[in-house]
Amino acid sequence: MSQKKIDLYGVMGDPISHSYSPNIHHLFALQTNQNISYELFLVPPDDLENAIKSFQIKGGRGLNITLPHKTTVLNYLDEISERARIAGAVNTLLFEEGRICGDNTDGVGLMNDLEKNYNLKLKGLNILILGAGGATRGILQPLLKANPLSLTVANRTLQKATALMEHFNSIGKISTCHFEDISDDITYELIINATSAGTKGQSNFFPINNINKNTFCYDLSYSTKPTPFKKWSIEKGVRHSVDGWGMLIEQAAESFYLWRGIRPDTNGILTKLLTHSH
Ligand code: NDP
After folding, report:
1. Percentage of the chain surpassing pLDDT 90?
2. Is 131 in the pocket of ligand 1 (CB under 6 A)?
3. Which pLDDT belongs to residue 207?
4. Measured on CA atoms in the order 230, 234, 235, 236, is the torsion positive or negative?
5. What is the whole-number distance in angstroms between the Cα of residue 170 and the centre of ligand 1?
6. 187 within 8 A of 178, measured Cβ to Cβ
7. CA 15–ligand 1 middle distance (angstroms)
8. What is the pLDDT of residues 221-248, one digit of tens each?
9. What sign does the dihedral 45-49-54-59 (CA atoms) show?
10. Active site includes 236?
């Protein structure tokens, strides 16, 4: 009796040992009855091209790409999806008939979490994003397309926020400012923390006063303990403050769908993940 072939997948990054992606994709594969393997690859920046080519030669079918490679990987692609091109960042590779195709599922991951899991309607909201790095690049397009009333990007380095404003100019209007200059005149209904400050243990830099119990606070960072942003927002009295686990699982589900053509049910995955991981 012939054994069913195992299709190879994985994630490349540096560092990578902390990644939950293998566990998430194994849970998806179990649920949808797919015969796949999914491995971690520690790939330093100057080895990315080689690592991708070796994976392709081994017959690999798909990769996730994470820090610090999401932008540099653009140099090694044969094709790029529209949403990844606009974001200028790639987190998913598909290997198809000798070609390497890049896509970005971060934006749809956040939107699925906000709109599907939390039932948040973004149309007409005042949205504030803290941070202007790679993650912000990935989420700006779908957020702008959801027709918010206003979208402000505040960043420690103003030039980076301004560069994003110019890059996304054709899709929608973005205002930018330093953290200290966040306007007190607008009450933000949604504040997204897209900085990596919390992961570095820095927590006292959210200089925002115009937040109230109805503000929805979303931290892209995630941890098994409450993140500094989540703690801060709860101290401010907000009722809805969540971290980035949902986005992590939803962006993985979208990658899985691109690779396998089957959309896993993300309901209950987080509980299983935290029970089985680490
Ligand atoms: P980048 O390194 O590209 O950007 C980091 C951002 O954080 C920059 O805007 C930087 O400001 C800001 N920053 C860093 N330290 C500080 C500080 N001490 N005070 C104020 N601002 C600071 O990272 P990413 O955009 O890729 O990732 C950001 C976060 O989002 C990470 O925590 C990451 O884990 C998370 N993430 C979560 C995902 C999920 O699925 N849940 C997906 C992708 C990312 P400056 O420009 O001034 O340097």
Report:
1. 86
2. yes
3. 66
4. positive
5. 24
6. no
7. 15
8. 999 999 999 999 999 999 999 999 999 9
9. positive
10. no
d(CA 87, CA 134): 8
159 CB less than 6 Å from ligand 1?
Answer: no
Distances in whole angstroms, Cα of residue 126 to Cα of each of 24, 194, 232, 243: 33, 16, 20, 19
Question: Which mutation among 19, 67, 90, 156 tests ligand 1's pocket best, with the greatest number of atoms within 8 A of CB?
Answer: 156
pLDDT digits (tens, 9 = 90+) for 6-17: 999 999 999 999
Its pTM stands at 0.95
As given in the structure block, the two tokens for residue 103 are 């896509």
**C-alpha–C-alpha distance, residues 247 and 132, integer Å:** 18
Q: In the structure, what pLDDT confidence band is assigned to residue 201 with cuts at 50, 70 and 90?
A: low
Q: Are 222 and 241 in contact (CB under 8 A)?
A: no
Residue 199 Cα: closest atom of ligand 1: 32
What is the residue with the minimal CA distance to atom 38 of ligand 1? 220
What is the structure's pLDDT at 38?
98
pLDDT tens digits for range 157-177:
999 999 999 999 999 999 999
- Tell whether ligand 1 has an atom less than 6 A from the beta carbon of residue 68: no
What value, to the nearest 5°, has the Cα angle with vertex 262 and ends 258 and 267? 105
Of the candidates 159, 276, 143, the one whose C-alpha atom is nearest the C-alpha of residue 218 is: 143
Per-residue pLDDT tens for 97-136? 999 999 999 999 999 999 999 999 999 999 999 999 989 9
Amino acid at 207: P
**Identified catalytic residue from 4, 58, 70, 173:** 70
